[in-house]
């Protein structure tokens, strides 16, 4: 039987989908890239915003229209956070949340063997759950592997529904991670991305830390790069940075969630730091790793954010000088404290602030790219482009292009040293230093 997967949302969802694909593959299913060829369709949903829910619902309608006879499974954060709404979706035959994902294969088999009897049940979190160990992920066609090592969140930011969709913090055991890393190495994934819902809290159950997982990945033979997903800044310590600076495989890219550069807004968001503390963390990172990239998320239009508050944010991000910023408008999320706050910011003002943030971000990103000119960086190449370039990423996350006229054969899954010669607003361009293949 054929199985088709579609995924919305974050790197954690990407990793979980890869694990579910591996589970179905083990049970004899063929993973296909065309939904119309599928006997089973699985949609792994996101619920960070209400528009994410709408995207999932619209996708389910489209999938059912294209393939009326398929068994359709809705899973992920949307049904976990809003079970009644998810159960009411007629296009889904099976509806489950973010728990017990390894049992989906059994639910599908039961559905097929029991005359298409639907199953719509979302098990609530109790706070006592352990990390769910699933089949090791399959990333067909990828040059890097996303490994989920942490789940859940204890922070309860006022705008965020994720603690309700994911439960409390829990971590993948190191023994399980070690086995998974060895398998990823045997499949020639040269770069590993460690990801989680609140990654910085990895290991808190046994008084461990994220460093334990990073060192394990760095010590795995065959893995050349270890990259981190998004981090909450408050658990980054001096000791952690010193250890990371000594790891040649560690990618010097830190995505530190900021959300706002205004202390008043951060307090209203229930963030666990202020701007002075955040700045000190950035300074410490740059002290130990001067060649690093620090990127972030910034939300505009949080309830009661004034023009002066937003100006404070712009001033702060210019002071930090991020390599890049993911900016987005605040969107009220049903079930969160912020959705019930007064003084919701009009959409027009959010749009205006977004444009100002984009201009600021573009300027900083170009300056960051320009700082690479003349430097030699190692690049993991991922694909060839129709515009005549090999394309890959440097350790700090910078996109690097090399003309195919100089290197005509595929460089995919290879790491080369590249001299950076110029940049545009998006990436850097360079030439490969001869005989610099790091894989040979």
Largest sheet: 6 strands, parallel
Fraction of residues in helices?
25-40%
Strand content is: 15-25%
Which word captures the global form? globular
CATH architecture annotation of the largest domain:
2-Layer Sandwich
- What top-tier CATH class of the largest domain fits best? Alpha Beta
How many domain regions?
4
Report the oligomer.
single chain
Q: How many β-strand runs?
A: 18
Strand order within the widest beta sheet? 2-1-3-4-5-6
Straight-line N-to-C gap: 40 Å
CATH fold descriptor of the largest domain:
Transcription Regulator spoIIAA
Structural class: alpha/beta
Radius of gyration equals 22 Å
Uncertain runs: none
Secondary structure blueprint with pairings:
Layout: E1 2-7, H1 11-26, E2 30-31, E3 40-45, H2 50-66, E4 71-76, H3 77-81, H4 83-87, E5 94-95, H5 104-113, E6 119-120, E7 144-151, H6 162-166, E8 170-171, H7 174-186, E9 191-196, H8 210-218, E10 225-228, H9 238-245, E11 253-255, H10 263-269, H11 275-288, E12 293-300, H12 307-320, E13 324-329, H13 347-370, E14 376-385, E15 389-394, E16 399-403, E17 415-423, E18 428-432
Parallel strand pairs: 1-2, 1-3, 3-4, 4-5, 5-6, 7-9, 9-10, 11-12, 12-13, 16-18
Antiparallel strand pairs: 7-8, 14-15, 14-17, 15-16, 17-18
Helix pairs in contact: 7-8
């Amino acid at each position: 039987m054929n199985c088709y997967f579609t995924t919305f949302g974050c790197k954690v969802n990407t990793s979980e989908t890869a694990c579910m694909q591996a589970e179905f593959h083990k049970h004899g299913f063929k993973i296909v890239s065309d939904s119309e060829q599928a006997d089973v369709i699985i949609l792994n949903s996101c619920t960070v915003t209400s528009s994410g829910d709408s995207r999932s619902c619209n996708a389910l309608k489209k999938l059912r229209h294209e393939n009326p006879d398929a068994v359709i499974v809705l899973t992920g954060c949307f049904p976990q956070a809003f079970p009644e709404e998810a159960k009411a979706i007629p296009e889904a035959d099976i509806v489950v949340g973010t728990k017990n994902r390894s049992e989906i294969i059994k639910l599908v088999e039961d559905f097929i063997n029991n005359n298409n009897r639907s199953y719509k049940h979302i098990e609530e979190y109790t706070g006592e759950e352990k990390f769910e160990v699933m089949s090791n992920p399959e990333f067909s066609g990828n040059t890097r592997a996303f490994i989920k090592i942490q789940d859940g969140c204890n922070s309860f930011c006022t705008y965020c529904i994720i603690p309700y969709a994911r439960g409390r913090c829990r971590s993948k055991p190191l023994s399980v991670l070690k086995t998974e890393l060895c398998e990823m190495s045997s499949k020639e994934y040269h770069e590993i991305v460690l990801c989680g819902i609140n990654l910085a809290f990895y290991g808190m159950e046994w008084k461990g830390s994220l460093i334990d997982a990073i060192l394990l990945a760095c010590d795995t033979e065959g893995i050349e790069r270890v990259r981190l997903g998004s981090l909450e800044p408050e658990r980054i310590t001096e000791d952690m940075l010193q250890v990371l600076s000594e790891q040649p495989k560690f990618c010097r890219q830190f995505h530190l969630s900021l959300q706002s550069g205004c202390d008043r807004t951060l307090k209203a968001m229930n963030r666990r730091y202020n701007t002075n503390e955040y700045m000190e963390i950035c300074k410490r990172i740059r002290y130990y790793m001067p060649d690093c990239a620090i990127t972030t998320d910034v939300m505009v239009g949080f309830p009661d954010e004034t023009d002066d508050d937003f100006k404070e944010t712009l001033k702060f991000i210019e002071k930090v000088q991020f390599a890049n910023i993911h900016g987005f408008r605040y969107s009220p999320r049903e079930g969160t404290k912020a959705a019930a706050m007064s003084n919701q910011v009009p959409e027009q003002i959010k749009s205006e602030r977004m444009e100002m943030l984009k201009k600021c971000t573009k300027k900083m990103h170009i300056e960051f790219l320009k700082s690479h000119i003349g430097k030699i960086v190692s690049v993991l190449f991922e694909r060839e482009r129709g515009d005549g370039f090999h394309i890959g990423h440097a350790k700090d996350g910078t996109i690097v292009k090399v003309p195919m006229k100089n290197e005509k054969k595929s460089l995919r899954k290879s790491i080369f040293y590249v001299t950076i010669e110029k940049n545009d607003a998006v990436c850097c361009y360079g030439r490969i230093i001869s005989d610099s293949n790091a894989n040979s």
